[in-house]
């Protein structure tokens, strides 16, 4: 019996949509043809395009884009979950960010998406014992995107980091699936003590701009942290905390705050 043939959309709908949007982008703005072709249409798979995009963003006089690309290609081949998480991130960003109208936008333009994918490769390198290379990826991502994520941190899929300026995520931090955060968020420690010292963020949490979550504390799933808050203690699931230091001010307001993206504090 002959092997069945599948259309690209049946195998990888995210990649199929990106390619269609890339073609439409060139039709609307021909001057972007070189960028769009080299970043998307030149590549046979999402994985190859993602590797190219990460490499081109991180390249520097200290390491060529070709070497970066070889490292990323190898990481994506060794750990397919990296690209699957990237697809989930694109879907999450398009669903939650009203300024995002296509799957193509995060791939080409959104530094929050690009920084998280660079982190995912760095985390793979860290897990493989290639600590110095992982640190190099972290350094370049911080220089290029203004996002500093330690390669040992553990971050889930379906992540949206909106605007993504001045994000800091520490070494022992854990971020669950379907988490949304805005710019200037810190998941940090409270001093120079070594060991497990960073926050554990549950699934579906929404973290507002400028919020600082400090110490080895747990933020329960589907909770909300108001903008500008300083969180120093555990947060129960499905609650809203606000203030300096943060206190519980009400319920989360909905079942999935990271998806609804409603930052209003109860009573306002």
Automatic annotation (TrEMBL):
<dbReference type="InterPro" id="IPR005881">
    <property type="entry name" value="Ser_O-AcTrfase"/>
</dbReference>
<dbReference type="InterPro" id="IPR018357">
    <property type="entry name" value="Hexapep_transf_CS"/>
</dbReference>
<dbReference type="InterPro" id="IPR042122">
    <property type="entry name" value="Ser_AcTrfase_N_sf"/>
</dbReference>
<feature type="domain" description="Serine acetyltransferase N-terminal">
    <location>
        <begin position="14"/>
        <end position="118"/>
    </location>
</feature>
<comment type="pathway">
    <text>Amino-acid biosynthesis; L-cysteine biosynthesis; L-cysteine from L-serine: step 1/2.</text>
</comment>
<keyword id="KW-0028">Amino-acid biosynthesis</keyword>
<keyword id="KW-0677">Repeat</keyword>
<comment type="similarity">
    <text>Belongs to the transferase hexapeptide repeat family.</text>
</comment>
<keyword id="KW-0012">Acyltransferase</keyword>
<dbReference type="GO" id="GO:0009001">
    <property type="term" value="F:serine O-acetyltransferase activity"/>
</dbReference>
<dbReference type="GO" id="GO:0005737">
    <property type="term" value="C:cytoplasm"/>
</dbReference>
<keyword id="KW-0808">Transferase</keyword>
<dbReference type="InterPro" id="IPR011004">
    <property type="entry name" value="Trimer_LpxA-like_sf"/>
</dbReference>
<protein>
    <recommendedName>
        <fullName>Serine acetyltransferase</fullName>
        <ecNumber>2.3.1.30</ecNumber>
    </recommendedName>
</protein>
<dbReference type="InterPro" id="IPR010493">
    <property type="entry name" value="Ser_AcTrfase_N"/>
</dbReference>
<dbReference type="InterPro" id="IPR053376">
    <property type="entry name" value="Serine_acetyltransferase"/>
</dbReference>
<dbReference type="Pfam" id="PF00132">
    <property type="entry name" value="Hexapep"/>
</dbReference>
<dbReference type="GO" id="GO:0006535">
    <property type="term" value="P:cysteine biosynthetic process from serine"/>
</dbReference>
<dbReference type="InterPro" id="IPR045304">
    <property type="entry name" value="LbH_SAT"/>
</dbReference>
<dbReference type="Pfam" id="PF06426">
    <property type="entry name" value="SATase_N"/>
</dbReference>
<dbReference type="InterPro" id="IPR001451">
    <property type="entry name" value="Hexapep"/>
</dbReference>
């Amino acid at each position: 019996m002959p092997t069945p043939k599948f259309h690209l959309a049946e195998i990888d709908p995210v990649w199929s949509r990106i390619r269609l949007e890339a073609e439409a982008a060139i039709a609307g703005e021909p001057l972007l043809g070189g960028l769009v072709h080299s970043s998307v249409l030149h590549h046979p798979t999402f994985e190859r395009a993602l590797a190219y995009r990460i490499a081109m963003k991180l390249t520097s006089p200290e390491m060529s884009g070709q070497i970066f690309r070889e490292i990323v290609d190898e990481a994506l081949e060794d750990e397919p979950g990296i690209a699957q998480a990237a697809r989930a991130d694109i879907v999450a960003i398009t669903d939650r960010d009203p300024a995002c109208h296509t799957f193509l936008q995060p791939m080409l333009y959104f530094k929050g998406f690009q920084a998280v994918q660079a982190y995912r490769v760095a985390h793979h390198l860290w897990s493989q014992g290639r600590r110095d290379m992982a640190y190099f990826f972290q350094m370049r991502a911080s220089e290029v995107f203004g996002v500093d994520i330690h390669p040992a941190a553990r971050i889930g899929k379906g992540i949206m980091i909106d605007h993504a300026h001045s994000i800091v995520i520490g070494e022992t931090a854990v971020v669950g699936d379907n988490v949304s955060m805005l710019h200037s968020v810190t998941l940090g420690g409270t001093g120079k003590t070594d060991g497990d010292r960073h926050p554990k963020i549950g699934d579906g949490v929404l973290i507002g701009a400028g919020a600082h979550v400090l110490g080895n504390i747990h933020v329960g799933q589907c909770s909300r942290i108001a903008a500008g808050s300083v969180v120093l203690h555990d947060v129960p699931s499905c609650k809203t905390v606000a203030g300096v230091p943060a206190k519980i001010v009400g319920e989360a307001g909905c079942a999935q705050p990271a998806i609804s993206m409603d930052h209003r504090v109860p009573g306002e």
